[in-house]
Structures are given as C-alpha cells and as structure tokens.
Amino acid sequence: MKKKYGLLTAITLVIGIVIGSGVFFKAELILNATGGDLPLGILAWVIGGLIMIICANVFASMASKYEFVNGVVDYAEVTVGKKYAYYVGWFLSFIYYPAITSVLAWVSARYTCTFLGIPISGGECMTIAGVYLIAVCAMNLLSPILAGKFQVSTTFIKLVPLLGMALIGTIIGLKNGVMIENFTTVVSADVEGNPLFTAVVSTAFAYEGWIVATSINAELKDAKKNLSIALTLGTLIIIAVYILYYVGLAGALPNQLMMEMGEEGVLMAFKNIFGPFGNLLFLFVIISCLGTLNGLMMGTTRGTYALAARGMGLKPNTFQQIDPTTDMPANSGIMGLFLTSLWLFFFYGSNLTDQLFGDFGFDSSELPIVALYVFYIPMFIQFMRKEKEFSILKRFVMPSLGVLSCLFMIYATYFAHGKDIIDFMIVFVLVMGFGAVLDFRFRKRKKNED
Q: Is the four-CA dihedral 417, 422, 427, 428 of positive or negative sign?
C-alpha cells in the first residue's frame, strides 16, 4: 500500500479516534458510578489516562523500530512470535475493531436523535446507526484520501466544544457557585461495587482507540518517526483535554441533574453555558463522534487484510487484494462492514433490549478493550527480554508499568462487570476457536506443500 498519510494525519488519527464520543458518552456514567463524587471521578480520568500514556509509550518505542503492515500485529510478531501475532490480528479483526466501531455508530446516532428530538430507544436510532456505518465505510473504501482529510478536519472541529466547555464552563461555574457545589457535594454514597474501579473501567472506552492508529503503519510516510511522535504527543493532548472538559462540565449543571438526565444532560449543559449557541456546539459533538467512527473504520477496513498479507486467516488470496484505483483492501473493508453490522445487532440485543438474548450479554464497549490489555502483557514482557538497544527507562521501566497497568484493568473489570465476563468469554472462545481451526488448517496445508 502507498505512503499517503503524513504526521498531521497520524496525530489527528490518535486524537480523533480517542476524543469524540467516550468523553461525552461516559461522563454521565462515571458520575453515576461514583455517586456524583466529582474528585473521585477526576481521579478515575487521571488513572485511565496514565494507563493509556504508559501503554502508548511502549508501543511508541516499538513504532520507532518496526514498520511493516499493521502496527500492533507486527509488534506482536516481533516480540512474541508469528503465531501469537495471528491470534492478536484475529481478535482485532473479528472482535475488537467491529465491536468498538459498532458502539461508535450507535453513540453517533444516539446524539443525532437527541439533537433532533427523536427517541433513542426506537428503531430510528438503530437505522441512523446503520446508515452511518455504511456511509463511513464507503468513504474509506472509495476515497481513502478524503477519509484522511475528514479525520483531520473533524479532529479540529471536535476540540471546539471540548475546549469551549473547559474554558467557559469553568469560568461560569466558579462565578455562579455550581462548580464549588459539585466539588464539595456527593450526590449519593449508596453505589454498587467499587466506585473507583467501575469508573476507571468506564474511562477505558473513552481513552481507547489510539492503538488503531498503528493500522495505517504501512501507509504512513516515515512511519518509524511519525507514528512514534503521534502516539506520544497525541495521548498527552488527550488526557489534558479530557480532564479540562470534565471540570468545565461541572460548572454547567449540578451533578444530580446531569445524572438524572442521561444523554440529554450533555445537551442541557451546552445550552446553559452557551445559550442559543448551545445547539450549534452540540452539533459539533455529533461531528466529533462521526470523526471517531471514521477513525475506527480506518482500522476495521484493514483488519482481515493484516492477516491475509501474511498468508493467514480467512481466504488470504481474497482479502489481501488491493484495489488498483483506490489503493484500498476492498474485500477486507466489506468484511469489516459485515462484522460491524453483526456486532451492532449484538449490542442492540444485549444492551438496549432484553427481548432478544434474555440475560445473556455484556457491554461490548468495554470488555473487548480490557481483553486487548490481556494481549499486551506477553508483548510487554518479551519486549523487555529482547529489545536490548533501548535505555533502561524504555526497555524495563515503561513496559513494567505497562504490565502493572494491564493487570490493574483486569482486576478492576472483575468488580465492574461481574458475571458478564463469563458471557464475554463464551463469545471470545467461540470466535477465537474458529480462528484456531483456520490456523490449524493453514499450518497443515503449508506443511504438506513443504
């Protein structure tokens, strides 16, 4: 694939994928998880942000040395081995990318419905989510350059409401006393489980997505330098923007009202701070979500291609083909759209209604992310063992902190999701088992050919 993206696209991809929906979508959930304890919520944002920065720093070190087809799959191969890389790539292609992308489509549709006054629980919301998926996938497959420009432009657009709320919300909140009240008053001390752990796991979705930037590794100019810079600089900007926005939001609306209103609370907050311009800035929130959806779709369309380029996975000869006109893996992109649609249906059945799957289901916006942290651990350990040319800080300190961060996320998830983890593991084993069967057939066929 051609080198068609520069440093600015890489930085905006990191920022644009992460910032865009989770900061709006999860802010209310973190308030509810902590019982409206604002300092505890801010602590959760800080811990989640530090975990992101630590892990991204380790991958930035890998990015400065390796430049192949698809970043995280490549890093898994050089640190642990080709077979492990296959399973990482399979997980990304069939669980992580499509699951997270489907949730983003729903979040984008949810805020669109809120803006238009349409009920978010009806079929209209899911229809809009489906339209968004098809439109963004088509843009990535038919015009990848346009998709890159859309990513850059939406990144700057989405910073307008975030920084606006951070600055004006803080000033007005201090002036009218709402911020002081929110910081000094806990709405409810009666919360289930461990509120900090639950809140940190919720931040995982808001902070996740930066790893998707490595999916354009093969298409990035001077990838060894630019991807490393993008991961480091992008994640630092993200955590600063998130905490400033969360503080500014505390000056716009009392925590109790924000917790009660749900998704409409964000719209009300913008109206309280910006008056008649609140609706316009909330439109920017929708654009922000679509920018994140576009960034995730960039990774989703390249998922099965990353495996096929290695001669592995589902029908490698089919999914490794590159369209000569668009320079995009069209077959891989179509498969990505199909898988995302399946995960959107699952999200609807397990999270938005109890009529399809009954008690079976899990939060597909969080558990796939935590599962990816599990995959990071062997990579970080092997990085410490193999990469002898790096400094002590990069070779031992940061990867060790990365392992501890991953273990913390796993431990916190146990308190946050409980038995839903079992439901996720059932789906995980089925999907990964199918991948194992294909891998066995691939190795057997290769052995016979040799």
A: positive
Q: Are 339 and 435 a contacting pair, CB within 8 Å?
A: no
Retrieve residue 58's tokens.
Answer: 């380790």
Q: Tell me how far the alpha carbon of residue 23 is from its chain's centroid.
A: 11
Domains and CATH numbers, the chain: 7-449 (1.20.1740.10)
pTM of the shown model: 0.86
The DSSP letter of residue 394 is: I
The tens digit of pLDDT for each residue in 24-55 reads 777 778 888 898 899 999 999 999 999 988 99
C-alpha torsion angle, residues 362, 438, 104, 21 (rounded to 10): 90
- pLDDT at position 415: 87
Structure tokens at 115: 């803006």
DSSP string, 147-215: HHHHHHHHHHHHHHHHHHIIIIIHHHHHHHSHHHHHHH--S-S--SS-HHHHHHHHHHHHHTTGGGGGG
Are the C-beta atoms of residues 56 and 210 closer than 8 Å to each other?
yes
Distances from the Cα of 331 to the Cα of 221, 312, 340, 362, angstroms: 24, 15, 14, 29
- Which residues are CB-contacts of 275 (< 8 A; sequence separation ≥ 6)? none
